[in-house]
TrEMBL record:
Species of origin: Fictibacillus enclensis
One Pfam family linked to the record: Pribosyltran
InterPro entries found in the cross-reference section: ComF/GntX_DNA_util-trans, PRTase-like, PRTase_dom
Residues covered by the Phosphoribosyltransferase domain: 160-235
Family: Belongs to the ComF/GntX family.
Annotated protein name in UniProt: Phosphoribosyltransferase domain-containing protein
Length: 237
């Protein structure tokens, strides 16, 4: 018998040959919670990984969404991000899980994404240097942990910390879409570890990709520090 990491209900995991043979990991969310997580499948934006099923045709141009086209038309922000890939649509249920993880201190919830997060990494980004998006000192102190680091640790590889967050902003969840995309000053700078990424492919890890502003600010610093390319991976999109 298992207990769901989110709702804490007891459940029995269906037995399969892959589980018996050790080829799959134990379920950490119950069937009801797992079914409420909406995997990103089908067609999606080739840059940010946004599912095309979820928004009207006018917000799409060929293989890209209009947000990414807007970024790529900017002289300052174009060409920074090779691609982002995410596990799930950021629906109301995933919002609840992420909120419980970040704002109620339930760090163990990150373990529930371990198997699919590793699978996505091996499929799309194997061999890239893993860099969690840093929090400000104030936010880290407030939460007691960095959720991006918890997710990066799920991948089992060495983590690098070539980024520092130098500007403490109000919470992204409190900002409007326009505020998120209106970047006046980069919130990141290179750390002493930035030398290690020179000539390397970097994978940024965060919990949610919303407009792409945070990821692109981090990618800009990484490329200026000598990285040859930067991609990102998140739980939600």
């Amino acid at each position: 018998m298992n207990f769901c990491l989110y709702c804490h209900k007891a459940f029995y995991e269906p037995v399969s040959w892959s589980f018996i043979a050790g080829l799959s990991e134990a379920m950490l969310f119950c069937e009801e919670c797992s079914s409420s997580l909406e995997r990103i499948n089908g067609e999606y934006c080739e840059i940010c990984g946004r599912s095309f099923i979820l928004f009207p045709e006018q917000y799409r141009q060929k293989h890209c969404c209009t947000d990414c086209i807007r970024w790529e038309e900017s002289k300052e922000w174009s060409g920074l991000l090779t691609k982002n890939r995410s596990l799930y649509v950021y629906n109301d249920f995933l919002k609840q899980i992420i909120s419980t993880l970040k704002y109620r201190g339930d760090a163990e919830l990150a373990q529930g994404f371990r198997a699919p997060f590793r699978k996505l990494y091996k499929k799309e980004f194997r061999g890239m240097l893993i860099v969690p998006i840093p929090l400000s000192e104030e936010r880290h102190y407030e939460r007691g942990f960095n959720q991006a680091m918890l997710l990066a640790e799920l991948l089992g590889g060495e983590l690098l910390f070539p980024l520092e967050r130098v500007i403490h902003e109000k919470k992204q969840s409190k900002k409007s879409r326009k505020e998120r995309m209106d970047i006046k000053e980069n919130i990141f700078q290179a750390s002493k570890e930035a030398e290690r990424i020179r000539g390397q492919s970097v994978l940024l890890i965060d919990d949610v990709y919303t407009t792409g502003a945070t990821i692109r600010q981090a990618a800009k610093v990484m490329l200026e520090s000598g990285a040859c390319e930067v991609s990102s991976m998140t739980v939600g999109r």
